[in-house]
Design goal:
Helix content of chain A: 25-40%
Radius of gyration of chain A: 21 Å
Oligomer: homotetramer
Structural class of chain A: alpha/beta
Shape of chain A: globular
Chain lengths: 376, 376, 376, 376
């Protein structure tokens, strides 16, 4: 790479979770520099966060509008190359649209937008501008998730028949306290949209299932539930799935599954072999057959998987490393963009974002109706 | 006990699987003696099986009708006390009815009957005769499954919110060969009834879920599928569940999940704690909470669980031992029956059988219709 | 088999553990009948135990001397074929010698005798009489332990370099109470001999290591310890090992490893592959390589292993089943002996017993001296 | 912190493994900046590595001598604050001594030096200069390793009786090829010193065991072996241990354990409870007792452990994160040093380094002699 890529951030102020993840991920491989940020709408708070990050006060902004306005006026060799959007859901769309219109590449959290219309409008803008856009479905960046996809592509599983994806968490099993910033905005329709659980982690689940299997969900039938009193959005749910090749399966997402941490798990059964991957134990991929020993592939032995890893197996890599692979990929893409070099990125695209928003809307529609199957 | 209890068997000839399991289970605790059998309808074959079991030729019969007729005429201190029915599904009903009518207690495989009408008729006969009837839902006899039920009863989980039960097997992933006796009758509607997968292992799944949770399924929505060409009955399926306390969940059963052996697994999430139990690792019960370490209970430490175990933990007990607990319980019940002593058995009853037949019929009805929810 | 084989038992009275295991194991496959027993030296207590086992009072004896005397006088078609010795260690030798001298085959618990001299004298008597003798190193009868041995024999591991065997238990971590019959005799030199921990479970460890590897320990260096105050025999210890092919390794046995149940574990590393087997999860055998996925073999796929199993994999078999394989093998051997047919049994022999006694004596000698290596 | 801390590196050129780990670790938390390096003795190669790291050519040096000379002459607000030494073993001592003499703080790889004399001389220099010195025994920086230590300190285990530490790897099971830079220098006495396996990973093992237990090894008895032909240093070995409180145990380290990746594992058994931690699954700590369920503590619930973690449990952290905790701690220490503020670091010290060198020398001495126990 010619130079370090310059990153700006919206969100990620005090009390944020995912903003700091984005920063660590961007740092890990050493080719991205965080040069500015709107770490909140309050200038003073934004500067306080920025100071702790060793960012000069004059590049800590009070809101994204100010940031975009001022950064646009900086010389080309100083201003940020891209913006990372790590705010609550309702702000993804306006910030991303504005960034694209001003010529900044975008890294955006999921779900991409609140509505299907916004999602499609954003996709159109990406196409129109030709700018780079990365949706942080970070779980697809784990080496063994990519290795799983490769096994499917190579036909090792035969015809896929059954897909089971589940994402149980327990952290919202009780009413959210006021100071739980993460819980508060996710359970509030104004900031979260029409769904809490399905939007937050159901979206990761469907994305991972389609990513690894290469299949598309064509019909679904959902049962959503809100268990915690006073809450208006779903905190739990199950979905029956049909895929475009005739496979069937289930998607379960829960934020009230007490005792579960972040237990995203994918199982795919084909006519010849099956695979199983667990995000909480991400360095192993299990392959099962009817006619032989169960195989546990590890990062070392996983062929192409080693492209997205930094250490020999047995030296555990985790969540930050996978997230960093998205950032590293994005930085490479910007470098190629600048040099007008061709580059085929692996990170999730704006189209993945559109699909995700469509699916979570179909799930919510299914859950609230009497029709058995909803077509996508 | 006053004396060994005398057992007769229908089924369990050459090539049988479950018949031999019943015999090992009946032997293990030393208080049951296999005294006669109709190990097939062919007298010669029946005697050949009987000889290998050290049963005199004159008590090896050609079919259950002959067995019941001849055993009925033997003196009370010689004739069998009960019959174990280990035949394909379609014969459970006629054999069990006849046995009850002649005054024999009955141990019967699941699913209990082919139709709901048969099931209810059999339940009525059990009530009418006052005889003992045990349905071999053997998984409920594992010590840790019973300990799980106890934890629920003691309120350790709080209010139950989510139940996930799954039973993936892979052994029917390909077309069944002629000499696969087990596969042949299960995939044949004449011997298996209206369902293969859901009847065979879906029934165990629903039974275990209701047994441990103490809840009843009230509504369900099913998606069944037949993957193997030429097969007419389901070999795979998923069901959305609603329970009588408002809990929701899923039931998955599959016989085409390649690489899976007999992977029955139950998870129950309550408002305070969750539990997880796997039949393939039956000696452990996992309890999870949001506010503490995950606990793995083992047979030794499982309080009442020790009533149904024979060895200290760390000395693995398994499938046969659990099955034997049903037989031991049944033998104790007969001993008490003979002595007109009160005894409260733990084995599954004819009412469990009725419920199971109803649920699998509801699942099949749901899967073939457009209505989202089927009420039970 | 021509007929059921008739078994007598010494030991196994009220409060016994292993006696009941022997009885369940003998029952499981249906070709052995327990016809008599000396379930203690007190005739009344012996008869009480016998009654609960449905054994006629006249075949419940007050001590082994009476049993042997009376059984010898019974007609050939009635008297016991063999005796199972399930007493504390110090009685193994006199009972086994007497049984052999009277023409009874013998099943004997380990360690075989208190001294090397006794062990060699017993081996000589077995050879002299030509009678059958089975030492119940039951762990070698697990299907996957035998499959492990087969992999070694087939050269799948290459040259063996490292063997690690460990057997941690926690049940003797505190002082033994008077009513703990199992703990009392094991910690008493009069009944247990010169060692507690190494004799009880170190002996199983060395036997399993040599059984699976096919190698012999040639030198050892031991560190034994007694942690619980008031105890005179070892309750914990480690041994460095050298094997006859140049391999090295360790043997650890502990009865004070709190929280451990019966965690016998064997690992063997060769030049090409390694294997790992855990008694508490006995249905799986792990094979690892530097150049491929880790393989988990299960009973189903384990080739010859299926000869010693009763159920499809996924239907857990455990401790009793493995023990029963010894008894079944022994019954087959007696049947062949009676018919003067050739038969090659798989159960551990009197020579295994001699070797075990020698090794535990070498361990105790090493631990009490200053010499680094003790040769065997 | 006032400003980013400035780091220089010796080692970490093309083909290096641990150098890149140090760089990622130093980047992760955003408070350290790599400003210069001697990434080899060849200036051109050093600059090539530096360029890929976006380091100006004039701060890429040909060897540490040049780096120290030139950096010393830079103004205080520009020159490096500390040097990270990531070279083969034989260079640790001269580089560290020189750095200290010139006033630079030092981060140094293990084993600290080739000889005990060097180690003690280095410790004296650290004391004399008052500069900061961190030895990268990175495994002690895992949150659950620190939580384990905390449980021991709180007395949760009671009196410690048995410690088992093992570190099996398989990567040196075959002869090392010329281009295997990692394997080449480790198996060469000139660069590795008197031991390969015990120095490389035995040192981590003893350090972790003493760190968590708070005990000191007082006597040991070792058996080392070289399995791969042509190799002169040990690639495998076992050590019997005695600790200063009377506990006993074993240390095993192997580089020829085929199929093992980096399987460092520690078990400590006390009179009340036991703990078990595996580096390859670092987010869990298992606690076992004789009188209750086995507990699996996760990072979330681990009290003080959360001080050294960055994400909620279920979002796997691994090797780099633990390593980064050392760097973060070191950066905080330098910041406090500069501000003359008191600060109590948690990273391993030069005294840990002295102890490590002493122990591995004792192990090598034991293995080559006939004396059973070597005192430390």
């Amino acid at each position: 790479m010619e130079r370090k890529i310059r990153m700006g951030m919206v969100g990620g102020g005090a009390g944020a979770f995912i903003g700091n993840v984005h920063r660590m991920a961007a740092r890990l491989d050493g080719n991205i520099e965080l040069v500015c940020g709107a770490f909140g709408r309050d200038g003073e708070k934004s500067r306080a966060t920025g100071k702790s990050l060793f960012i000069p006060a004059d590049r800590c902004y009070a809101g994204y509008e100010e940031m975009f306005a001022k950064e646009s006026q900086l010389p080309a060799d100083k201003r940020m190359d891209f913006v990372s959007i790590t705010t609550p859901n309702h702000l993804h769309y306006p910030i991303a649209m504005k960034a694209l219109q001003l010529g900044f590449h975008v890294v955006c959290e999921k779900p991409m937008t609140l509505t299907v219309e916004e999602a499609e409008s954003l996709a159109a803008e990406v196409k129109k501008t030709g700018l780079l856009f990365c949706l942080t479905h970070n779980y697809t960046a784990y080496p063994m998730a990519r290795f799983a996809r490769q096994l499917v592509r190579e036909g090792k599983l035969g015809d896929i028949r059954r897909i089971m994806v589940e994402y149980p968490q327990g952290w919202l099993a009780d009413a959210v306290t006021v100071d739980n910033k993460q819980g508060s905005w996710r359970t509030d329709p104004k900031t979260s949209g029409i769904t809490c659980c399905m939007g937050d982690i159901g979206s990761h689940s469907e994305n991972l299932a389609e990513f690894v299997s290469g299949l598309k969900i064509t019909e679904l039938c959902a049962n959503l539930k809100t268990f915690v009193p006073g809450r208006t959005l779903d905190d739990d749910g199950d979905v029956l799935l049909k895929f475009d090749n005739g496979a069937i399966g289930t998607l379960t997402a829960s934020q009230i599954a007490v005792g579960e941490e972040n237990a995203l798990k994918l199982r795919i059964y084909g006519s010849r072999a099956a695979l199983e991957w667990r995000q909480e134990n991400p360095e192993s991929l299990i392959v099962k057959r009817n006619d032989g020993a169960m195989e546990t592939f590890r990062r070392n032995w996983a062929g192409a998987a080693s492209n997205w890893s930094r250490l020999p197996a047995g030296h555990p890599e985790g969540f930050i490393e996978a997230f960093a692979s998205l950032y590293n990929d994005f930085a490479q893409a910007i470098d190629a963009f600048n040099a007008k070099r061709s580059y085929t990125p692996e990170y999730p695209s704006v189209d993945d974002g559109v699909r995700g928003v469509k699916i979570i809307h179909a799930i919510v529609a299914s859950a609230s109706g009497d029709q058995k199957w909803i077509k996508l």
